[in-house]
Amino acid sequence: MLESRLKPNRLLPLLVAALTSTQVQAGDFTIELGGFYSQSDSNMQVTNPSTGNNFTLDYESDLQLAENEFLPFVELNYHFNERHNIYFDWKQLHRSAETLALSKPFQIEINDTIYDIQAGGKLNSTLNIDILRLGYGYDVFQGSNYNVGVSIGLHTMLIKMGFEGVIGACAASELLNNVCGSQPIPRMVDENVTAPLPDIGLYADYEFTPGWELVTHAQYFSVKLDDVEGELVDVKLGIDAQITSSWRMSVAYNYYKVDVDIAQTSAEKQTQVANYNIYYSFIGPMLSVSYTF
After folding, report:
1. Sign of the Cα pseudo-torsion (161, 167, 170, 172, in order)
2. pLDDT by residue (tens digit) across 43-62?
């Protein structure tokens, strides 16, 4: 005679399997919150007023911005189909510092105005970078304990550069022997740059034991379009652990590098009025928790 109900020793494995299942379901929405420990390397191209030659200004060593910081991030992921998903994430990289005695004088050109920042003076510097990533992923291969997919998306960097101190300013046409004739006065200089970079990538996850996954993604793009030229590398490798049926915890190691060169020209004069070369990278561990609805 067939049993009308499951015995306890049969029910327990089914409950464990349901709790630790990593199979993505259509309609799953996941929000992930966490932070990462960044080791930053950022610089831009400026001009030496003494020689008129360009050189690389390092934000960490020359302007005293913190090289290592713990910074937040958030990621949203929605599976509208068992194989199809869309994702959005945001990383905040905001830093500022005060240099009591600037060791290297430099000039920057913004919108046909030369800003002359002299050595020896106090300078407050700001470099805020917000990185937004929006994309689409498709699981090409699926198995009982693994997924392998491809992605296409867009990384957008919102860059805010700022300097506050005793700074000279003059029109590019008024520059004489690489020196502004106007007397430096206390002033603030701000500039905002938006750098969009499309990307393509691969991602994969492998459940090596129930409830524990090895996860990775790699994204890359190199583009030269109109006045924007850039390269993006984003590689992540981590371990994901399921705490409950909805909560997960992840520890990962991330390498991120972006190099953007933006040349801006005047529509009227057809001449270059600003040139930004922004290099940014971080490498370090990431820690996060996620919840799936």
Report:
1. negative
2. 888 888 888 888 888 889 99
